Amino acid sequence: MKARFEKQIDELSRDVVIRLGQIDKSLMVAESCTAGLLGHSIARTPGASKIFWGGLIVYSNSAKQILAGVDPEIIQGSGAVSEETVDALLHGLLQRFPIDAALAVSGIAGPGGGTPEKPVGTVYIGSICRWLDEKKYIQRCRFEGERVEIQAQAVIEGMKQLLTML
What is this structure's pTM? Predict the structure, then answer.
């Protein structure tokens, strides 16, 4: 990970752990393009064991379907990198695990894989909170830079989004 993102990720991870700890809520993540960076960032934070339930790395379409319960028709119709897929990841986590909040990321980190409609750097990020009547927010982001920079920016934006909901 690029050093310029490390401090911000560490600060946001700390804030997520503290905030969820204060309200005694648990979190689980589903990650595609970040491939574990989000979960790793949270888990390396002191106090994470109180709030962090775990994470799924759902890098392939099959993993999204088998591990998180994403309907194959969603992936075929909207694509793995889509609002619909992230929504299905969020709801899959809530349905399958005894957690309070979920955060999901799916995108194209590059250097290949982009299309004119979804260029490299396109990332969908979503969060949901069970105790807030399943209040949910999903956004499409477009990040610039190398693969690791896109991944780091997705982690940063995901944690910011969750903290905003809290």
Answer: 0.96
